[in-house]
Amino acid sequence: xPAAAAIRKVRRMIPLNARLARGAAGSMPEADGxxxxxxxxxxxxxxxxxxxxxxxxxxxxxGWLKRxxxxxxxxxxxxxxxxxxxxxxxxxxxxxQQPAPSARAARSIVLVGLMGAGKSSIGRRLAxxxxxxxxxxxxxxxxxxxxxxxxxxxxYGEPSFREGERRVIRRLxxxxxxxxxxxxxxxxxxxxxxxxxxxxxSVWLRCRLEVLARRVAGRSHRPLLAVDPVGTLATLMAQRHxxxxxxxxxxxxxxxxxxxxxxxxxxxxxxxxxxERLAVRLSGxxxxxxxxxxxxxxxxxxxxxxxxxxxxxxxxxxxxxxxHLPSLLAGLxxxxxxxxxxxxxPGEASKSLATYGRVAGExxxxxxxxxxxxxxxxxxxxxxxxxxxxxxxxxGLPFVQVPTTLLAQVDSSVGGKTGINTAQGKNLxxxxxxxxxxxxxxxxxxxxxxxxxRAGYAEIVKAxxxxxxxxxxxxxxxxxxxxxxxxGAQAEAVLRACAFKARVVAEDxxxxxxxxxxxxxxxxxxxxxxxxxxxxYGEGLLHGEAVALGLCLAFALSARxxxxxxAEAARxxxxxxxTGLPARVDALPRRHSAAALVAHMQRxxxxxxxxxxxxxxxxxxxxxxxxxxxxxxxxxxxxxxxCDA
Length: 645
Ligand SMILES: NC(=O)c1ccc[n+]([C@@H]2O[C@H](COP(=O)([O-])OP(=O)(O)OC[C@H]3O[C@@H](n4cnc5c(N)ncnc54)[C@H](O)[C@@H]3O)[C@@H](O)[C@H]2O)c1
Hints:
Blueprint: H1 3-13, H2 16-22, H3 35-39, H4 43-54, H5 64-68, H6 74-77, E1 108-112, H7 119-130, E2 134-136, H8 137-145, H9 149-156, H10 158-174, E3 179-181, H11 190-199, E4 200-206, H12 209-216, H13 224-227, H14 229-244, E5 249-252, H15 258-271, E6 276-282, E7 285-292, H16 299-303, E8 311-317, H17 318-334, E9 338-344, H18 353-365, E10 373-378, H19 380-392, E11 399-403, H20 406-412, E12 417-422, E13 425-432, E14 437-441, H21 450-467, H22 469-483, H23 487-507, H24 525-535, H25 543-560, H26 566-578, H27 594-601, E15 614-617, E16 623-626, H28 631-640
Parallel strand pairs: 1-3, 1-4, 2-3, 4-5, 7-14, 8-9, 8-10, 10-11, 11-14
Antiparallel strand pairs: 6-7, 12-13, 15-16
């Protein structure tokens, strides 16, 4: 019995509901003419293979999988290299309308979506507009297999079809840029999705149910839809939309004509900028710091590939919740990621044992499992607290940082240090717990109060002062714009500072180097923590402000010890003061005692063998760790800066 006849027979044998039930998310592609075979999967495979065994006159073409992965193979010989593989009856563009090569996109464009969304017709039009060749993945597969997808399914089964689809998409994306229309099930395959993510910009043509149903109604090559089109499409939508939402760009392809939708896609592509990704490489694996504007509303698509489960608990503070939680939740919902929320009061006081206890309890109340992720949405306080909750609840939950202050984006969200404060000092209870991903949405910085923006800026300056003289020079040049809200300068600062921190953390993940290493990130912090302890971790002195003062004091101490030119210390103090951050102790709103500050330093967790640990500098960009700092020099430095005895 020929395969097509076997398929017809199967179709008669299998009731529609059973076919639908088998049509799980990834198992019901709908390329032209292929639905029948695909829905007959299962029993159909058995019947068809029996048919193949009997029909020895039809040689199995097992080489098709190989051909799919080959460059310029037999399949390609049958398909024109440029332009649509088959002439489109309604093609609106003449060849003369081909744009000049200069208009060509640098990256391939992959269209995903359900049957009827218009992937092929819009793909053809888009290809002409952007000056790229158009390919249809299903047509490629059929050409390579030398049979229809219906027959392919019947002969080899869905796993082979998916493997072929993976190969053809990989091969096409490895070549010169093109516009590629994929079968509706292709994007449901994790490995195909990964290949598309790596090699192309993906566009989901999203379409409402009624529109889809109208478009596919009466198409004889989609027999599945002839019986219960609306029900079938609704089932497919529920299964696939959360995964389609992982596409880079979503364009509604509704009532508009194909030409209008094509223009919308083209426009969206022109306005789209891929977020920057920085890899933090650690001994136990790597994670990405993703930096870009508008990432919250795409959080689901960005996080879905790394979350072990489509469930999470978002921990945030009241101020951030009011401003940015709805965007994040909407972004997560788009990819069907279920989210609970736990909200704490804003400010350093939330990094306490009491808040930790309440938050951990609420997280457990939400019935988390070991694969449920904790997402920190907020500044360094939320990041440190939520990270410690993630590190300790059920002995460790997956963790994601979504930093919303400049300080958190440039520093605290990267590197895996988490913790809370105790009556004895800052960050004295904590754990190393690396995130799965850091999503730094630079657009949220627009709502950050000016004082918080300044405080975060201190950590960027710190990165430059430690080991990146060019970054420090960039800071001197761009501080005014960055602090005035220049989004470009802010994004660049986040990238540069994160790249710096990623390098340092990769070399000494757990701050175990005998000297220098990750401990260099504490430049200014021995001073800063003492001031924070003195002022009670409140609004009186923000962490970043304390760091700014600490940086100036570390340079002054280094100059006093004769290891740094005084001019370098003066240059740093002048820059810090010019930004409105405290550069001297006498710029603080209250008086401080040098002896009390040194007493706090002696309880700092960086003490070793009872000796004070400092990060000193030979100059800008030349920090080093030291354990030979006499307490008297520290006291003199503090006094010179305006401290009482
Ligand atoms: N883990 C680390 O490696 C590391 C490094 C540096 C600092 N830290 C810690 O970070 C903490 C300081 O972090 P921080 O400066 O981000 O403070 P924060 O988390 O308290 O945030 C500052 C304030 O800004 C508000 N806010 C946050 N995002 C906002 C937004 N987009 N728009 C409007 N308001 C917003 C918050 O509600 C809060 O009131 C300190 O506890 C410090 O110890 C940790």
